[in-house]
Design a protein that fits this description.
Layout: E1 3-8, H1 13-24, E2 28-33, H2 36-46, E3 49-52, H3 58-71, E4 73-79, H4 95-119, E5 124-129, H5 142-165, E6 169-176, H6 182-190, H7 194-204, H8 213-224, E7 235-238
Parallel strand pairs: 1-2, 1-4, 2-3, 4-5, 5-6, 6-7
Helix pairs in contact: 1-8, 3-4, 4-5, 6-7
The structure holds nicotinamide-adenine-dinucleotide (NAD).
Nicotinamide-adenine-dinucleotide binds near residues 8, 34, 35, 56 and 184.
């Protein structure tokens, strides 16, 4: 039976780079995303399978189980799907926006972890895509920051649970700094001067540049593979020193 790797939010950006990398490494990859056209095109391009999944929907996760089982055995889950509505004054942040961000970034990862722990009877690896923003907080992004800090805590809790129960499931998180993706491009465009925002982002990172999607994919591939067999509950910063 093939080893299946599910990547949520794999239609573009960091998720697509992760999906491509895991496919190259030999996994049967399922790209699970709300963006159907983009997701189908991405899956076709890298030899993966596409499944429509809204990570906030318990029903969609239940439907995904059948897709996974039709393709093999779940060995890797990457909870990558996330939203960031951008900076806004706290006083003006609508409650619906707060709830939407928490729902996608945190509820979605919980539902994913639960499915993975149920399915990974022969062991496996969960990798959550957190954020440097969950550590080095941003005052104008309370929902995003709280959702990622929550995701980091969820990662450690799931790791402890699976370890103590002897389930053979490891759970870790990668915490990216700024990475060139459509999400970041949208945020920069929102500032009115994308070029200045790009230069400012690079200068914030002690290493002097922002990351590429493959920088994150490499870390996820390592955390999900056998070379990380002794690593669980880790929050791995891949952020050019942003959180130092
Ligand atoms: N880009 C960065 O600089 C950066 C930094 C730190 C953390 N991250 C995290 O990395 C992850 C990927 O970010 P990105 O920059 O590639 O974003 P992106 O917006 O470029 O891509 C996100 C993908 O997630 C999908 N998605 C959104 N909501 C979904 C839902 N409810 N269900 C399923 N799929 C959904 C989108 O359709 C899209 O394909 C996110 O969790 C983000 O918070 C990104």
């Amino acid at each position: 039976m093939a080893d299946v790797a599910v990547v949520t939010g794999g239609a573009e950006g960091i998720g697509l780079a992760i999906a491509r990398r895991l496919a190259v490494d030999g996994a049967r990859v399922v790209i699970a995303d709300t963006a159907v056209e983009k997701g189908e095109a991405a899956a076709a391009a890298i030899g993966a399978v596409f499944a429509r999944l809204d990570v906030t929907s318990e029903e969609d996760w239940a439907d995904l189980v059948a897709v996974v089982q039709a393709n093999g055995e779940l060995r890797v889950l990457v909870n990558n799907a996330g939203v960031n509505p951008g900076p806004a004054p706290l006083e003006e942040l609508p409650f619906e926006v707060w709830r939407r961000v928490l729902s996608v970034n945190l509820d979605g990862a919980f539902l994913g972890c639960r499915m993975a722990v149920r399915l990974m009877k022969a062991g496996g690896a969960i990798v959550n895509v957190g954020s440097a923003a969950g550590v080095r907080v941003v005052g104008e992004m309370p929902a995003y920051v709280a959702s990622k800090a929550g995701l980091h805590a969820l990662t450690r809790s799931v790791a402890l649970y699976c370890g103590r129960k002897g389930l053979g499931v490891r759970c870790n998180a990668v915490l990216p700094g700024s990475v060139e993706t459509p999400m970041v491009e949208r945020l920069r465009t929102g500032t009115g001067d994308a070029a200045a925002a790009r230069a400012r982002a690079a200068s914030l990172h002690p290493i002097g540049f922002v990351g590429a999607t493959d920088d994150i994919a490499d870390a996820v591939a390592w955390l999900s593979g056998p070379q990380a067999r002794f690593v669980t509950g880790a929050l791995l910063s891949v952020d050019g020193g942003l959180t130092l």
